[in-house]
Amino acid sequence: MTLGILVVDDEPDIEDLFRQRFRAELRTGQLALHFASSAEQALECLASGLQPEAVLVLSDINMPGMSGLDLLERLRSELPTVPVVMVTAYGDTENRQRALEIGATDLVTKPVDFAALKKLVNSVIARKTAA
Amino acid sequence: MTGPDDSGIDGIVEDPNGDFAAPGTVQGTIDRARHYREQVLSSIPGLLVHRGGRVLHCNRPAAQLLGYATPEEVLALPGVLALVSEDAAFAERQAYEQCLAGVTREDVRRIKRQRADGGVQWFDQLLEPVDWGGAPAVLETLAQVRPQTGYTQMPHQWQLLQAAIDAMPNGVLMLDRDIKMEGANSEFLRLWDYPPGLFPPGTPMDVMLTYNHQRGDYGDVPCGPIVAELASRFLVRCVINAERHVPNGRILDIRTAPRADGGYVVTHVDITDRKRIENELREAKERAETILKELRETQQQLIVQEKMASLGQLTAGIAHELKNPLNFVNNFAELSGELLDELLALLGPLDDRMNAADRADAEDLTASLQSNLRKIADHGRRADNIVKSMLEHSRGGGGEWQTADMNALVDEALALSYHAVRAQDRGFNTELERRFDPAVGALNLVPQDVSRVLVNVFTNAFYALRKRQKTDTEPDYRPRLTVSTVDCGGTVEIRIRDNGTGMTPAVIAKLFTPFFTTKPTGEGTGLGLSLSYDIVVHQHRGRFDVSSVENDHAEFTITLPRAIPAVSLGERRKT
């Protein structure tokens, strides 16, 4: 079965990076990636229904308009079952603590270590499918 | 009705204005009796008893002499010093204290008192210690100044002159051409604290000066020379020839003016108050200057702190902004390497179709590509490390305030740094001298951050020692690091001195600037000391001082206060 991941970041190059990094998983059809360039767009996508359905959201924190933490808050109340992992340049304890308090599953700091991210994605998905 | 007693009194008491009732009448007797009382009273000296300034007793003549209607009015005064004019208060207080302590003065003092009507009157005064109500008190006897026997025989004009100089506000001493006293006024006697009648006209000047010496005016010096020297000053004309401190605490400005007949008029002006005001003004000026200096220093410190703070904020901003592009650089570089490997794997089977030369070219190209990608990744990581330390720098320590033993902290940091440098360079060795002051004790600080500062400074010191050891041509060079802690009461000093390469003034000037480094590219970020400065000065409100002589030594002094204000400027910098 194909699992959908929604990546929210205002950097357009993030799409290339993720597609290339997860190219093996994409080729085998294990994963499908959706991209949104803002928190607002992400909410729209999720509301209109994504195919395949997103089982994990990866979101940047610092974005023009609605921030990643605001998005996280909205998702916690609207889609409490979808885990959200924050990806940010602001890896200090304060931001981390806030993100975890609001309900983020984890926090990954930039530059992103994709080996670690893949492990994280796999563990989140494993937990998700087990549940 | 006449009796023998009545006539007896009548014989003594004359009726000066014819105001009394007729002699022989009752009223006349009473009038005469009253008048006689007035006469007796006027010949009795004024008596005051006081203790610690409070008037305990005042007799009727004293009240009258001072211009008060009743003794009760004198008793109602705030204190006995209310009768003393301000310029004489110091001397009087001293005289009273001495008397209260039981010292009896044998001689009379010439003093002035302020009358009820504000006028000033000269008196001769005697002070005696008495027992009053079971405790010691001062018995002060005041008598109107009487013409001295010597003076009464003087011609009328001399008496007029005496009255005139007595009325002058300054001390006046008249000397004849042989430097013998011709006359003096009351103010002169008061200023010098000379008992009236001590020096009759005709007393030679050196007798007066010898008297001064004997009572200790000139301190412990031989009598002859000082008297001769002072006497010679009176011969100098028209100049300020002395500014003297006299034993009663006053400062006198003494001037000599020559007279046509060869004598001198010596005037004494009491400049105690002027001197006091001058001193106060000078002290106030010095205080103001000290405060101004402190303000300037604080201002300087604030400017530096503010500069550092805004630099820190800027650094944090730049660091965060750099993280995003770096994310792409690092990831795409790594990815490209992977993609290249995959591409090569795909092209592997085609290798056989190429001729040997092309294959060699292709292998060379792919090798270069891979090495380039590795370089991009390496430099990306380097940039990432710089960004990390920049963020660390701007964020300050996340550590907690704790009470920690300073000497232990220093020792620990020293061991840590020494191991680190030895791990890099096995051949490096240095003499370490620890001079720890046990009085330093425990301090409230953020141990994690202070330790970072110390490690930083130690590492730099070891670097300088190694560098000098490597380049130094003198064979007897021995690297040496001295670490001392000193308890300075409210502060604690940590001095770190190495005899390494030292620094030029130009380097010292830029030492705490972020990104400034003297190490080769890639070895230092230039943030270590900048961060250390932040921790010591902003976070801990301390001082960070540097002194160095190139190719001789470098000394870093960190001063930490024992008590730190709760809110430090550095805390505003949280991002």
UniProtKB/TrEMBL annotation, chain A:
Keyword terms: Phosphoprotein
Which residues are recorded as modified (4-aspartylphosphate)? D60
Q: Which domain of life is it from?
A: Bacteria
What InterPro entries does the annotation carry?
A: Bact_response_regulator (IPR050595), CheY-like_superfamily (IPR011006), Sig_transdc_resp-reg_receiver (IPR001789)
Q: Which residues form the Response regulatory domain?
A: 4-125
Q: Any keyword Disulfide bond?
A: no
GO biological process terms on file: phosphorelay signal transduction system
* Identification of the protein by name: Response regulator
| Organism field | Azospirillum doebereinerae
From TrEMBL, chain B:
Keyword terms, alphabetized: ATP-binding, Coiled coil, Kinase, Nucleotide-binding, Phosphoprotein, Transferase, Two-component regulatory system
EC nos: 2.7.13.3
Cite the residue spans of the region called Disordered.
1-23
- List the InterPro entries: HATPase_C_sf, HATPase_dom, His_kinase_dom, HisK_dim/P_dom, HisK_dim/P_sf, PAS, PAS-like_dom_sf, PAS_fold
Which intervals hold domain Histidine kinase?
317-564
A Pfam family annotated for this UniProt entry: HATPase_c
Query: What does it catalyze?
Result: ATP + protein L-histidine = ADP + protein N-phospho-L-histidine
Where does this protein have coiled-coil stretches?
A: 274-305
Supply one GO BP term. regulation of DNA-templated transcription
Extract the GO molecular function terms from the UniProt entry: ATP binding; phosphorelay sensor kinase activity
- Name the NCBIfam families on file: sensory_box (TIGR00229)
Looking up PANTHER family in the UniProt record yields: SENSOR HISTIDINE KINASE, TWO-COMPONENT SENSOR PPRA
Q: What is this protein called?
A: histidine kinase
| Organism from which the protein derives | Azospirillum doebereinerae
Tell me the classification of the organism that encodes this protein: Bacteria, Pseudomonadati, Pseudomonadota, Alphaproteobacteria, Rhodospirillales
